[in-house]
Amino acid sequence: MTQLPSVREEILAYYAQGKEDARLRRGVGRLEFWRTQEVLRRHLPEPPARVLDVGGGTGVHAEWLARDGYTVELIDPVPLHVEQADRLPGVSARRGDARALPADDGAYDVVLMLGPLYHLPERADRVRALAEARRAVRPGGLVAAATINRYAGLHDVLREERYFNPLQRARTDAYATDGRHGSGGEDALFTTAYFADPAEIPDEFTDAGLVPVGQYGLEGAAWLMGGVEEWLDDPDRREAVLAATRRIESEPTLLGISGHLLSVGRRA
Q1: In degrees to the nearest 10, what's the CA dihedral of 167, 180, 262, 109?
Q2: What's the per-residue H, E or C state across the chain?
């Protein structure tokens, strides 16, 4: 019998704190949310297509997908997330791992992975997860995966002025070198993760049997600018910010400036 993969305990403990539900609903995290939403809406088939939201957390994206008329199932390894997501209208949620999806072959029109690749430091595991997404989606179906960009942590820590702390600087410089973010102890800002070079992702899609379609920097440089949270509160300024990030979203020289990258592919 094949042994199912297990999620690292420190990752489960990090998300068991219950902070994830608010991350994309307020502050600068709204920029990532709105940009993910608008990029996906360009690529999604018409509802009521079947969507499998893998690592969908508390259902922040599953919620609007269900509201748009999609048939949404969510899989996440964190019990608290599953409990929260399962309460949402039109969303069914259960526990599972991206590397061994509890899904029939070709059962879905869309498979979203808007979090699992964050926490798979080994390339083989990332390709395995993408291959599982390919298996679960129908021929011609959409697979979209989010990654954290290689220097997002360095930019964020510098923006928050934590980079001037010698210990934090040493940690940040270390994972900016190879992308491997360790759990880091009690004062760590994040948990075990992998910060990807945008150029890596198309090859991982290809090795998983997917045809890459496009890559989209979600936040551009806007997330690093002072005042962006207040801009997002103002409808006119918010639209200007979204338009600016949209303008440069696939510019190769600027992909890595975003905190997050959305890569899109299809099953041939």
Answers
A1: -140
A2: CCCCCCCCHHHHHHHCCCCHHHHCCCCCHHHHHHHHHHHHHHHCCCCCCEEEEECCCCCHHHHHHHHCCCEEEEEECCHHHHHHHCCCCCEEEEECECCECCCCCCCEEEEEECCHHHHCCCHHHHHHHHHHHHHHEEEEEEEEEEEEECCHHHHHHHHCCCCCCHHHHHHHHHHHHHCEECCCCCCCCCCCEEEECHHHHHHHHHHCCEEEEEEEECCCCHHHCCCHHHHHHCHHHHHHHHHHHHHCCCCHHHHHHCCEEEEEEEEC
pLDDT of residue 1: 39
Q: What is the pTM of this model?
A: 0.95
pLDDT in tens, 61-117: 999 999 999 999 999 999 999 999 999 999 999 999 999 999 999 999 999 999 999
